[in-house]
Amino acid sequence: MDTFLRLVQVPGPSWEERPIADVIKQEVASLGFQAHEDDVAEEIGGNSGNLIVNIPGNTPGAPSLLFAAHMDTVPLAVGVRPVVRDGVIVTDGTTALGGDNRAGVSEILEAVREVKEHNLPHGDLQLLFTVAEEGGLVGARALDPGLIHSDFAYAVDVFKANQIYTQGQHLLIDPPELDLTPEGVARAKQAAEHAPVIPPEHLRLDQNEKRILDFTTGAMQDIGLVPEFRRIEWAGTDAIALRRKGINAISLGAGENRPHSTEERMEIQDLVNSTRLVRSLIARAAASAAVGGPAGAALALVD
Description:
6-stranded mixed sheet; 15% strand; Aminopeptidase; 10 helices; alpha/beta; 303 residues; single chain
């Protein structure tokens, strides 16, 4: 929680992420790693590039994982004064909280901190902190895909930790026509809160979808979460842009509630659950090394 409370107080609206980018670099350095900044700032007209962190694995054969979260917030989340009340983090009512997406950033950092401090087994990890997501997934769309070399990628943003969003009968949400305006991204995220639940047996998955789904739901079940499938047209997260670059990515819940509004709130338990899920995915990847490595681990990890 402390990391989240620190991060929401650092300004960083879309195209103006320099302050939060510098803080994240410091957080990463405190873990013993280095955040490399790409050169998209000039291309997109911002003052910061995307940050990429490469963490070598200590478990040969484990699938490599990428965890992504966007650094920027909506303008309403500048000048945040967080208030903790009865297990919930809110604001003083004058701003949004900025949980979208400082929640995802803090959850990723805390999970990696636990892995590092306890010397837990893990495969190669990549952390990606993007810019201008709220402006239409701009930073992720400008990302050089050659910088990414992970088997599975997760955009940690928006939903509850146990929720998996689908498009019709398919897991990977990537419709041909997207409204990538800031308003379109905001509508997609708000719609996610009201998306209907669908039975998993209604899904018709190809092999690629099944691999990442089995891997992800297994990690949820490992920590006592019951996977819940919801149907939506698109998720409004960087997972879309990553998939269009050939990266096997889906969205992973960060636990945000009522984003982009002065009523935004973050339940502390949701922060805990999403952090545990990131850590569980890392642990499950390491445990899978004995059953086939990156190529076969996800297929072997079927509960």
